[in-house]
Design a protein that fits this description.
Elements (H helix, E strand, L loop, with lengths): L6 E9 L5 H9 L17 E7 L2 E7 L10 H12 L6 E7 L5 H12 L4 E6 L10 H9 L6 E4 L8 H9 L19 H16 L9 E10 L2 E10 L2 H8 L4 H18 L2 E10 L7 H6 L5
Parallel strand pairs: 1-3, 1-4, 4-5, 5-6, 8-9
Antiparallel strand pairs: 2-3, 7-8
Helix pairs in contact: 6-8
The structure holds guanosine-5'-diphosphate and magnesium ion.
Magnesium ion (MG) binds next to helix 1.
Amino acid sequence: MNTAPHRAGHVAVIGRPNVGKSTLVNALVGAKVSIVSPRPQTTRHRLLGIATFPEGQLLLVDTPGIHREQKRAMNRLMNRAARGALEGVDAALLVVRAGQWDDEDTLAYDALRDAGLPVVLVVNQVDRITDKTKLLPYLAKVSEGREFAGVHPISALKRSGLEALVKTVLTHVPEQPALYGEDEITDKSQRFLAGELVREQLMRQLGEELPYATTVEIERFVEDGNLLRIGAVIWVERDGQKLIVIGKGGERLREIGMKSRLQMERLFGSKVFLETWVRVREGWSDDEAALRAFGYND
Ligand SMILES: Nc1nc2c(ncn2[C@@H]2O[C@H](COP(=O)(O)OP(=O)(O)O)[C@@H](O)[C@H]2O)c(=O)[nH]1
Ligand SMILES: [Mg+2]
């Protein structure tokens, strides 16, 4: 019988872009609440992933990575969101890619310790390490001179090592009842998530720099019986970009729409009728007012 007291608390998920923070949050929540792509800077907003277990509830604060690049307003806002993530949290997960550790990880560790937080080191992507004998010396090296509340090699993608990680993290959050209902998975609205799922397809399907010049606005979100009618506007910065997003004969936009719709249907558990448009707004990603209008307002 389980007699341990119930625990619940906020946990910041911190680490460099592309180490797998959002993949980890989704794996723990058990649903895709945070979008994932092979590109850095996929996550633009702070988002709460709610992971409910019999022993407790973890409110995972997924963050955009911490970026040195401060030039564009977008990056400034993303950094603000990452730092703001530390307010009111009980513990932090510092996520790194197995085999890697650099100055930015050291900076992040120091900041978390200075904030007085227990820091659990999550060594992700161990499935990519073919020579497992290299793992132990690596773990010893990164732990040296640092006080981690736990060190967990995991694969967020293959969902391995997660049970032990959850057990460790739960010991560092307060004894208290669940803070959200057990069927809740995020603090964001379905409308927001719909926009993110379209953006995920843009990140995945557009080449090179273009994804960073796009954003998505959900213009319509209506429940119509058991159908969701969703209208999404994809904003780009120039006419040429519009042509690329639409593609030859509209092929790319159709593919983006189809994949986004399937993801929405899976996440919302209902049929979705999705319409998409591409519109041009010059320089939106360097314009703080436009960013706020698009919901980047931490
Ligand atoms: N092989 C492998 N890839 C992973 C793992 N976790 C994440 N990835 C991939 O790494 C990329 C970045 O993941 P994401 O979660 O968006 O990283 P974030 O920027 O830290 O949020 C995606 O292509 C993921 O599929 C893992 O455990 N193993
Ligand atoms: Mg992310």
